[in-house]
Amino acid sequence: MSIFSALNREQKEAVGLLQIGTFLEYFDLMLYVHMAVLLNDLFFPKADPKTAGLLTALAFCSTYVLRPFGALFFGYIGDHIGRKTTVIMTTMMMATSCIIMATLPTYAQIGIAAAWLVTICRVIQGLSSMGEIIGAEIYVTEITKPPVRYPAVGLIGCASRFGTMVALGIAYLVTSFGFDWRNGFWIGAAIAVVGSVARTRLRETPDFVDMKRSVNQALEQAKEHGIGKTEELLKIKEKFQKDTLGWKILLAIFLCYSGAPVCLYFSYMHCGSILKNVLGLSPEAIIQQNFIVSAVEFLFMVLTVYLSYTIHPLKILKFKVCLFLPFLVAFPFVTNDLTSSFVMLLMQCISVSLTLTPIPATAVFMQHMPVFRRFTYASLIYALSRALMAVLTSFGLVFLTDIMGQWGIYFIMIPVAIGFLWGVSHFEELEHISKKSAFSKIFKFS
Prior knowledge:
Elements: H1 9-34, H2 36-43, H3 49-61, H4 67-80, H5 83-103, H6 107-110, H7 112-143, H8 149-177, H9 181-198, H10 206-224, H11 229-241, H12 247-277, H13 283-307, H14 313-335, H15 341-353, H16 362-367, H17 374-404, H18 410-430, H19 438-442
């Protein structure tokens, strides 16, 4: 029997539409990231290897740095106007930026303006992708119940990884078979427009509708009792905003969300730099290898999402991070004297299989956020974690490994993994999955 047999037709349609939209968002978003070795040469001035590494870091983190502002914008819309509105808006934003990218002149044609315009497009894509995936995950969380909720929300994450894999496939066609890279952005833009129109079929989530109904009832009751406008709003604010998150829950969610951007950069960008600078692989060969890595990542994510129906997703996350830590310790020993791209392929495949992502436990984190501020909380934490960790990892690894070799990864990767483990352990306590562990006692916060 299918694990989704408990969902009705309307729920299945919503999950399907949201998966398609998220796939398109991440296909468009990651198309540039994974063709950076090629497109940076078209849109940025020629540079030495170290500067080229910084440009790759810029292309990567420009997607994330302004996301906190987007989080405030989409958070307000999602919590005051509706979840449905946000997932339509984000798809249209992505379509617009892709059209611009598809028609943008190169550096050779218009000079440094090309670099500025492509960076602005990357920022727009980053903002829309944030509102997209958070909106989709909240929507599915609010229309489903456990245990089917965990794989249903997890499929949104799988769709984002599938979009990444297809983007790498297009990048491979561009670099190996002469496929016009602009056509990739045209395809993404066209499907994004169709997807945003299809999403108008969605209905607003029950949790959001109930919350808005409660607000309206409170307003009516306040008017019946003759309460003034200012006092009326204060009472409503007190009623619906008193259920706020404690700092330990906020910190735990932040740490669990911080692992994904670190692992993404490490597995693809950092390892890609090793393939290019140490083994001398061409951009075409690097993209081909990263495509294989993305397929492995997608398959392992689908497996964990499938398992979350019968195994609690927090247990899955804890198992992964406990394997990821010894992998990190071993990585410099293997790569300092690297002579084979196949060995690096194995290391990349292990890395993406154990990626420190909140999937498939995203729904667990969402449920601990109050409905009245769920979109704002989720989008802000998501945006801040990615903005901070993208900058720290992309630029930090360039300088640390330049000074210390591959041992430099320890100073970023291991603290992130330990923080991720603490965050998962804290939610295990909140979900009553396990009693306070020895690990939690060591890192006890008063």
